[in-house]
Amino acid sequence: MIRAWTAASAGAFIAAIGGQIGSFPVFVVGMLAFGAGQAAALQGRFVAADLASDSERSRAIGSVVWVGTLGAAFGPLLTPWERRVADAAGLEPLVGPFLFAAVLFAVSGAVVAVWLRPDPLEVAGLLDPHASRVRPLRQVRTAISVVAVRPSAQLGLAAMVVSQTAMVAVMTMTPPYMKDHNHSDLSAYVIALHIVGMYGFSPFVGRAVERIGRPKSIMVGSVILGAGTTISVIGGYSPVLVFIGLFLLGVGWSFGLVAGSTLLSESVPSASRVEVQGAGDLLMSLCGGAAALSSGFVKQSFGYHTVAYAGTLLAGALLVYTMSARPAVRRAA
């Protein structure tokens, strides 16, 4: 994680340089490294689960996800101030947020380096100091082979990927959809409420996952996710429905992420856990990125309703898959 935060800090600084000199290639290179910060943030929930007992693992993951609410809520509020500081320093105003991000990423890496000692994996006895380095692609292949023979791990991974894909596709296209219906002035508030749904209730979601079980929680998340996408598609003429739909979309995503992450983490051998967690986040991010990229083309060609209904179909497919996989998951428990 320290290396990821360091890379993200360097990437933010390079992106700022690219923005200042007007070089798009330099900016893109910086953003590639910048993404390491998102990867580290995602992996943070698994770090919290490394030392948690089986009865507290979901709550530990939910608590870390909830902390993300603070950054998601206050980060955008700092942007105007960051732009003013950059302007006062004689820089391009839009460079400001990237420079502050570079500092914050560096601080995050320092906090982990100083206070996350000893390594939770070392305490749990899962860290082999004599292990040889393995190429990333080989790690991914190994992780896939581990998941492929474990139905519960497959279900956890499916919950993470489907929840991320459906949520990103609909969320990305909602502001343009609202603009089409002359509600663009409300889109920022809709996204803010959506973020509250994603992160704000994560501790309660974690408790629910511990109480009713992982598969049932994934089913609950699927229903909420499907309800959110369905309400969103009929909400163009009613801003209230858009608010409700995007909020439910966030809550459904939270159930899928927390329950899926917990199930994936506890379903694989300890020796393979880190590789599987990393591969799971990689697949989730790739599918989310593909959803964000393709949703614009789908909306332009077929309309927002097609994007939302695709999200509904994904949620429904996850629900059916979870129901069919429950017996195998129970046998593996």
Task: Outline the structure in words.
This protein has 333 residues and is mostly helical. The protein folds into 2 domains: 124 residues, no CATH class; 193 residues, MFS general substrate transporter like domains (Growth Hormone, Chain: A), CATH 1.20.1250.20. It has 13 helices and no strands. It is globular and about 65 Å long. The chain starts with a helix and ends with a helix. The model has no long low-confidence stretch (mean pLDDT 85).
Task: Summarize this structure as a short list of keywords or feature phrases.
mainly alpha; 333 residues; 2 domains; Growth Hormone, Chain: A
Radius of gyration: 20 Å
Largest sheet: none
Tell me the distance between the termini.
31 Å
CATH fold title of the largest domain: Growth Hormone, Chain: A
Question: How does CATH name the architecture of the largest domain?
Answer: Up-down Bundle
> Which structural class best describes the helix and strand composition?
mainly alpha
> What share of the residues lie within helices?
over 70%
CATH class category name of the largest domain: Mainly Alpha
- Total number of helices: 13
- Number of E-state strands: 0
Percent of residues in beta strands?
Answer: under 5%
Give helix and strand order, one letter per element, not per position: HHHHHHHHHHHHH
Arithmetic mean pLDDT = 85
